[in-house]
Write a structure and sequence with these properties.
about 375 residues, Nucleotidyltransferase, domain 5, DNA polymerase, domain 1, 3 domains, 17 helices, flat
């Protein structure tokens, strides 16, 4: 199919009129976020059964015309490794496309391996080796080189073929509902919203800090995120995780003590000293009852380690019978949680419970 470049609203509206009549569309995005807080959407590729378009999102700023397509519950939106694409679309219009079919998840459900790349899947299913050398193209460049456009279009050209093949194989093996259940998890808006109150949990080294230190880290992480947002720069460009960690440990309350924070550069002190000290002051005024609890992982007891080994062996054996990886059937973190809190077994998706629920109940003593 010939690649169509869409660079004005009239063309986009005409394409959407065509696309909303389809049963499915395949989509992908090219974006840059190396030096920004917000990802910059540079190109969006969409394929239907008869058309492939590359939408120049640097020229067309208003993409609201796409809302009808992505919000339609009768049109399946096909992505590969959908998480980042959905995050960007959510940031643009505040909604997540639904329903979604993620070919990476589908491939895992069929035993092609966990987190298989698009290029690997194309080669295995379509017999076509893709050139991935352009994956790091400067997508903000205009005009885009022809090779870059071809590369971007290929990300949806073969996606439609993969979708058809995986969909049939899932139906033949009775696993369609597995993938539907997993893909529904992608529509949880909390996956894409920044929870300012929980940012501290993802800071490196947080697990080693006391409750008092975590309270300081919580205020610092929230301040850094706000600062990064205001400047539209990556969080780590404001202050690195290691610097936040040192600040949380040393807890400077004056310019003199701030100067003793080794990882804080002179430039950063000059720029952020007042804000950091204000942040420290707020942290110090936080009542002890509102401090975060330590998130240090408690070591499993000897009995729990033994049980975890048995549970993992059971899942591994069941996965081998099904021809899938144990990790797709149940991750290690899932199993560790169940060993510590067997009562949470019911929280597993129904398809997992049907496959391993009874065996886990016996092992965990939840009969």
């Amino acid at each position: 199919m010939e690649i169509e470049i869409i660079d004005n609203l009239d063309q986009l509206e005409a394409f959407c009129t065509h696309a909303v009549r389809q049963d499915w569309v395949c989509a992908d995005t090219e974006f840059m976020r190396e030096d920004t807080y917000y990802p910059k959407l540079c190109l969006m590729q969409i394929a239907t059964e008869t058309r492939i378009v590359c939408i120049d999102t640097l020229i067309i700023k208003d993409l609201s015309v796409l809302n009808k397509l992505f919000a339609s519950k009768t049109i399946t939106k096909v992505f590969h490794a959908a998480r980042q694409d959905l995050e960007i679309l959510f940031m643009i219009n505040g909604e997540i496309p639904y329903p979604v079919f993620d070919t990476q998840i589908a491939a895992s459900a069929l035993g092609y391996g966990d987190q298989i790349s698009y290029a690997q899947l194309v080669e295995r299913l379509c017999g076509v080796p893709l050139d991935k050398s352009l994956a790091r193209s400067v997508w903000t460049r205009r005009p885009l080189p022809e090779k870059a456009i071809q590369y971007a279009a290929n990300d949806v050209r073969y996606l439609s073929q993969i979708y058809a093949l995986l969909k049939k194989e899932l139906e033949d093996k009775g696993r369609t509902h597995w993938v539907e259940s997993e893909c529904r998890q992608l529509n949880d808006v909390n996956k894409y919203r920044t929870d300012a109150q929980s940012l501290w949990k993802s800071v490196k080294g947080a697990r080693k800090l006391s409750s008092k230190q975590l309270n300081v880290l919580k205020w610092l992480a929230r301040w850094r995120d706000h600062e990064a947002m205001q400047q539209n720069r990556p969080r780590q460009w404001i202050l690195r995780d290691e610097t936040l960690h040192e600040l949380a440990v040393k807890q400077p309350v004056s310019a003199a003590s701030l100067a003793k924070v080794e990882l804080l550069t002179r430039k950063q002190r000059g720029r952020y000293a007042e804000k950091l000290l204000a942040c420290m002051d707020k942290a110090m005024q936080t009542p002890k009852g509102d401090w975060p609890e330590s998130i240090a992982t408690s070591a499993l007891s000897r009995q729990q380690r033994k049980l975890l080994k048995q549970v993992k062996a059971f899942v591994r054996e069941r996965a081998e019978q099904l021809g899938i990886t144990p990790n797709f059937l149940a991750t290690r973190s899932m199993l560790e949680t169940l060993v510590c809190k067997p009562e949470e077994l019911h929280k597993l998706q129904s398809w997992r419970l049907n496959l391993i629920g009874n065996g886990l109940k016996q092992l965990l003593g939840e009969e």
